[in-house]
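Go through this fold for my students:
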Amino acid sequence: MVHEQRSGVRLSPSSDTKDMRDDIVALLAPRLAHFAGVARTEHVTRAAQELRVPQSTLSRAMVRLEQDLGVDLFARRGRTLSLTPAGRTFLTSVERALGEIERAAEEVRADADPATGKVAFGFLHTMGAGTVPGLLHAFRADHPRVRFSLVQNYGEAMLEGLRAGELDLCLTSPVPDAPDLVARRLDEQKLRLVVPADHRLAARRRVRLAEAAEDMFVTLEAGYGLRRITDDLCKEAGFRPRVAFEGEEAETLRGLVAAGLGVALLPPPAVPRPGVVELTVTAPRAVREIGVAWLDGHPDTPPVAEFKKFLLSRRGNLLA
């Protein structure tokens, strides 16, 4: 199909640089709905009435649109218009684009709805079995139709998710201290020394962490908050842990301990694990702080604001 070219072309259709694409979008986007209205009615006066814009403004906009594109979109017979082949081709894409914009607008409005909106919520793997389901159950007693997009990950990855706009809130440990984030301490969780059932310390109920200085440790990988806490507690106890295995999930580490491959510092399990004994650590004080974080200055939708308020109300009672 050959489209007739107009004189005075403002944008070269052969240009494909990013700056040129940005210019095209900036020029065309405000006129697309007007073009679709005129194309639908094939009459400037009726289109102006439907779109609630002055007829002269609409006429000038269509002329300018054709000039910017460099093609004739309409064949004119007085105030009556008919689409050229180029106009029909353009209309197909314009209607598709306007439909996508409408669907996007509906989606973001739905996500912000106070009653049925969505919260993108991140949390640590160790909180997925019991703590988070309990929190969601309690919150939805008063907000039964609020939807959640749930993400389980380690702390640093969730903080990046906040910065990227992928998460609204996250429960993490340690509680972050960063200028672009707001964080509030909610609770603390005791950590236990987990040993195999046949370990020399297994008959004890309480131990000092220094008593495990000669043992091999199984830990989370570097970059995980619990790994950093483990290294810090061992340093405080006077030794550097000898790491035999690194993993990404606490229950996997428990399985490694049960297999006799080392000991680990872990939060309490949701369900007791056979083959291991969990010992209270008396020194140093073995706990990790749990906090909620969000991006500073990021506006909350009503459902996010309500869930944030709910989490803050659980301060000191988050893990009960």
Observations:
- The radius of gyration is 31 Å.
- The chain is about 40% helix and 25% strand.
- The mean pLDDT is 87.
- The first strand starts at residue 74 and ends at 77.
